[in-house]
Structures are given as C-alpha cells and as structure tokens.
Amino acid sequence: MRARMSRWGNSLAVRIPKPIAEAARLKAGDALEIQVTTEGSVQFHRPGNFPTLAQLVSQIDPENRYGEIPAGPEVGKETVEW
C-alpha cells in the first residue's frame, strides 16, 4: 500500500491507512519508536514499558548522584522567602 509524505509544521508526516493501523492494532496516542536502517528504510516499533518515577529513583546511588552545583551569587528576585 502506498502513502504520500506531507508537511506538518517543520516536520514531515505520513498517514497510516486504516487497514494497516487495524492490522498493527495502532490507535491515536500510541507511542512508537522510529529507527532508520543502514539501507535507509524506516522502521516503527512499539517501545518497551516506560520506567516509573519510583523505578528511576531506586537507581540513584552515591556513584551517580551529583552534588549541588553553585550558580554564583543571587541576583534579582531569586531568593524565595517562606
């Protein structure tokens, strides 16, 4: 099945025909990973599960935790008084 590339803002877009979307069980809002092969073909994949915030925080340890980064003296209304 053929499709035509069209402009969408500064990007390009292609509409996925309904029979293909149904066969791939795609629906509006689904996340897809896009890869380009060495031959120049474009492949779409369903991404793996996205990690939760709790999973990401559980991976913090002393080796990958950075200290506070000084940004210099306060200027203007940067100080918050509670």
Q: What does this molecule look like?
A:
This protein is of the alpha+beta class and 82 residues long. The protein has a domain at 5-58: Pemi-like Protein 1, Chain: D, CATH 2.10.260. Helices cover 15% and strands 20% of the residues. The chain is built from 2 helices and 4 strands. Strands 1-2 form a two-stranded antiparallel ribbon. Strands 3-4 form a two-stranded antiparallel ribbon. A hairpin with a 2-residue loop joins strand 1 and strand 2. It is elongated, with a radius of gyration of 22 Å. The N and C termini lie far apart (62 Å). The relative contact order is 0.08.
Q: Helicity range of the residues?
A: 10-25%
Total number of helical segments? 2
Main sheet summary = 2 strands, antiparallel
Could you state the order of secondary-structure elements as H and E? EEHEEH
Please give the CATH class of the domain at 5-58. Answer: Mainly Beta
| Count of distinct strands | 4
> Strands of the biggest beta sheet: in what spatial order?
1-2
Specify the CATH architecture of the domain at 5-58. Answer: Ribbon
Percent of sequence in beta strands:
15-25%
Which regions have little confidence, pLDDT < 50, spanning 5+ residues?
A: none
Rough outline: elongated
Look up the CATH topology of the domain at 5-58.
Answer: Pemi-like Protein 1, Chain: D
- Summed over residues and divided by their number, the pLDDT gives a mean of 88
- Global structural class: alpha+beta
Distance N terminus to C terminus?
Answer: 62 Å
Radius of gyration: 22 Å
